[in-house]
Backbone:
DNA sequence: ATGTAC
């Protein structure tokens, strides 16, 4: 009998795997799924969440978002909070792509004016924005410049002419997380990171020109300065080879110290270290450095993408109306205080394929958004909708202040390619303008390979974790 | 996600 049969329905969209279902399981696993998404839940993803619930110092529950799928050790769409005094930190539960995240830039432009020129815009995007596996940047960083990037994050990019000082007010952690120590990253990480700053990467990463297709909450939309027919620029990328190397290095460290700290691992991919140990702290500081690299990366990418649109149209920045709505991580570990059994507890919240979604009046929400809540950007798969939400109060009670992150795969890359070859690419992606170095990524990233992001967002919205404000549709996409 | 297997 699989674990899926042992799930107990607690509500329309709430399922629970009670604690002690598997040996050593300290806390329940709570899943947020509609009937349709429940059908797509993989046994292995549930098993990974249950495994994590056995780790030392895990608090309250492991939460699983509606876009869940199997990941390395811990599912994508998983949330785990561990006590900072008694708990562990787990690199696999944050993910290989540290601070993979999303950025949304608003403009004053109308989609009706931009759409006729989208091919020209996207062809310039392909020339100006490096994308694809192993692509490199024209920015070459010395070791000392790298160290600055790892501490200053997006601020470093602004200092070097990529974007505007106001941007920093609208980034999670102001684009530079504290506790970043460049000395805790390896030589290999530096090597890989030195020529990848300002590059998109591959897989589901993209730079997209979008239009606001529908507003669900007019009052909130007005406060955020968004309107139907408005052109937006969205960036989805992370810390590239640098973050990947940090994860690789510290997974190795974690396996090495597993006996020293007597940690019982149900799966070696969950290798972890006590948060309050030299090894745990070293990973935490290297992870924050990688997060800052990613913030700098998206700062550069967003500015370059916006500038490409602006220059193609031959307009000034004033006419363009560049304004950063928000930028946040969806693969990260954050030290936060949360209520557990009526008491405030300091935890490290592992969010893997999961987005912070703080409610209105939380001090971490920028002043401009204080009354509406933290913007939550949910990128769709290529060709389908993306969404803008705002965090709501239930997130603090239901998921350590966390919402979903996107669609989540249902078709493997191989399956997707086969499907495209059978059906034909034109039929699969319709009128969308997609540019990429090779056709491989486009075939792997077709919308049909993903769960329906609309359904995922509906669950989060109806649970009161985050409120859907607007739907965005792609006009043109740059893939890796 | 990723110098797509060290």
Residues:
């Amino acid at each position: 009998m699989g674990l899926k049969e042992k799930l107990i329905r607690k509500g329309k969209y709430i399922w629970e795997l009670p604690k002690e279902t598997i040996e050593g399981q300290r806390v329940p696993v709570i899943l947020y799924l509609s009937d349709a998404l429940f059908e797509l839940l993989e046994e292995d993803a549930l098993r990974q969440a249950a495994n994590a619930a056995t780790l030392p110092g895990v608090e309250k529950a492991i939460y699983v978002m509606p876009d869940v799928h199997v990941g390395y050790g811990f599912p994508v769409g998983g949330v785990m909070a561990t006590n900072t005094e008694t708990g562990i930190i787990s690199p696999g539960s944050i993910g290989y792509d540290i601070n993979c995240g999303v950025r949304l830039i608003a403009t004053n432009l109308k989609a009706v004016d931009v759409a006729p020129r989208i091919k020209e815009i996207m062809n310039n995007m392909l020339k100006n924005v490096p994308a694809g596996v192993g692509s490199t940047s024209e920015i070459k960083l010395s070791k000392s410049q790298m160290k600055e990037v790892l501490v200053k994050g997006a601020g470093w990019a602004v200092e070097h002419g990529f974007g505007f000082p106001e941007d920093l007010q609208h980034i999670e952690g102001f684009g530079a997380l504290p506790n970043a120590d460049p000395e805790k990253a390896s030589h290999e990480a530096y090597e890989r990171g030195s020529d990848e700053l300002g590059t998109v990467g591959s897989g589901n990463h993209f730079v997209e020109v979008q239009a606001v297709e529908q507003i669900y909450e007019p009052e909130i939309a007005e406060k955020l300065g968004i309107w139907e027919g408005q052109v937006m620029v969205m960036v989805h990328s992370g810390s590239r080879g640098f973050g990947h190397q940090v994860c690789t290095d510290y997974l190795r460290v974690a396996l090495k110290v597993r006996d020293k700290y007597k940690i019982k691992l149900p799966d070696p991919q969950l290798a972890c270290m006590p948060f309050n140990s030299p090894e745990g702290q070293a990973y935490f500081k290297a992870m924050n450095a990688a997060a800052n690299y990613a913030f700098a990366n998206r700062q550069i990418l967003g500015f370059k993408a916006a500038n490409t649109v602006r220059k193609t149209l031959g307009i000034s920045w004033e006419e363009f109306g560049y304004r950063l709505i928000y930028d946040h991580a969806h693969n990260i570990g954050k030290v936060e205080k949360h209520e557990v059994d009526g008491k405030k507890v300091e935890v490290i919240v592992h969010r893997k394929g999961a987005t912070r979604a703080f409610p209105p009046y939380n001090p971490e929400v920028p002043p401009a958004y204080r009354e509406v809540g933290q913007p939550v950007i949910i990128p769709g798969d290529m060709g389908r909708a993306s969404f803008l939400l705002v965090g709501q109060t239930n997130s603090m009670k239901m998921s350590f202040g966390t919402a979903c992150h996107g669609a989540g795969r249902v078709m493997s890359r191989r399956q997707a390619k086969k499907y495209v070859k059978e059906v034909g690419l034109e039929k699969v992606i319709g009128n969308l303008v997609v540019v990429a170095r090779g056709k491989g990524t486009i075939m792997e990233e077709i919308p049909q390979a993903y769960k329906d992001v609309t359904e995922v967002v509906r669950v989060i919205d109806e649970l009161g974790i985050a409120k859907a404000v607007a739907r965005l549709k792609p006009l043109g996409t740059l893939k890796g």
In short: The radius of gyration of chain A is 21 Å. Chain A has a mean pLDDT of 96. Chain A is about 30% helix and 25% strand.
